[in-house]
């Protein structure tokens, strides 16, 4: 018995690529990354309110805005507060993971774990103080960054 083959032609590579690109560009992930008002799609009129809307909804535009006011580019002591806040976040993450191995948050073990960390663990006191002062500095730099940006 012979099989009956389907007479429809097999889609070409170009057709398959077009279908895949249309599927990706129609997805929710694509539309959330490339929002209206971006350099890829024009959707909003150019006004200060619409520019701030686009920047608030996109991390890319927060880091590299399309238009920057002249006073914002001027070198000042508050220029790198966002980057400093991010650096402190990374520092807190690394030191927090290190401290997590030596600390148990229970009534019985907490005091002994901290004293053991400070006296017996190599660089334990240094890492604990880096974590503590990094947390204080991060609160301060995030507050100052928000005050400067908004």
Notes on the protein architecture:
This protein folds into two domains: 33-67, no CATH class; 69-150, Cytochrome Bc1 Complex, Chain C (Up-down Bundle), CATH 1.20.810.10. The protein is 62% helix and 0% strand. It is mostly helical and 150 residues long. It is built from eight helices and no strands. It is flat, with a radius of gyration of 27 Å. Helix 6 runs antiparallel to helix 8 (124-149). The protein has helices at residues 13-25, 28-33, 48-56, 59-63, 70-73, 81-100, 110-119, 124-149.
Outline the fold blueprint:
Blueprint: H1 13-25, H2 28-33, H3 48-56, H4 59-63, H5 70-73, H6 81-100, H7 110-119, H8 124-149
Specify the number of helices: 8
Could you describe the largest sheet, including whether it forms a barrel?
none
Shape annotation: flat
| CATH hierarchy: architecture of the largest domain | Up-down Bundle
Overall pLDDT confidence: 81
**How many separate structural domains?**
2
**According to CATH, what is the class of the largest domain?**
Mainly Alpha
The assigned structural class equals mainly alpha
Beta-strand percentage range: under 5%
User: Can you write the helix and strand succession as a string?
Assistant: HHHHHHHH
CATH superfamily of the largest domain: Cytochrome Bc1 Complex, Chain C
The overall strand count is 0
CATH topology of the largest domain: Cytochrome Bc1 Complex, Chain C
Q: What integer value in Å does the Rg equal?
A: 27 Å
The helix fraction, in percent, is: 55-70%
